[in-house]
Every structure is written in structure tokens, then in C-alpha cells.
Write a structure and sequence with these properties.
Length: 135
Amino acid sequence: ALEMLRRPPRRRGLVVVISDFLGDMSWQRPLRGLGARHDVLAIEVLDPRELELPDVGLVTMVDPESGQTIEVPTQRADVRERFALAAAQQRAEIAAALRRAGAGHLTLRTDREWLLDIVRYVANRRHTASGGASR
């Protein structure tokens, strides 16, 4: 879908990409191309369950692509810590890739009301664009 937007436009515009940005990172190159021609806002939809494993005992997980199953002992603190560290690293990699693409980055969590986050983001962008000057 991002490749279709890369065709040369008549005018520069705003492109908003809404995704969780998980999995294959092949979106990076097309997004950089978009960033060269447009203002890009990447809205990352984040479910807090992707950040931490709850302590609920032994959980069987299935990879939706391969069908492979694995049993995860979520009662073990070291397993939950490794999961949280891997999730934090993944989010940092996504944020860095979005910065390299020149995209604005707004994270919207599924466990919160989004409106306030959007208002804060827009207000911050306006403040930054005006050079930090207040009215």
C-alpha cells in the first residue's frame, strides 16, 4: 500500500499511516520514499499486552504464520522480564526507523482514550513548528 503512494504527486501533502508496525520491517524503505515527498505521520497502535506478559501460569502460544506452538511459563519472573526487554527493544527499533524515515510518530494505546493523546501531539507539533514561541 505504501508503494502506491510513492508515485510522484502534483503537490506535497500529509500522509497518515496507521499500523502496529510489528513483524516484517519492509515498510521502512517505502516510508522513507514517502517522507521525501510528503509530510508523514506514523500512528502506532499499541496494545499494552504487547509490552508485558501477565503472570497467569503456563500459556500455550501459536505462531499464526507457521502454526508452531510453544508453552510459555509466564509465572517465571525471568521470562516476563525477557519479554518486556524484547518488547522495549522492538519499540525502540520502530521509533528509530520512523525517525530515519522523517515521519512524525504518535503512539495510541488501546487501553486509553485517544483524543487527548492526539490533541497533545498536535499542540506539541504546533509549538515546535512555531519555534517554541507562545502567543
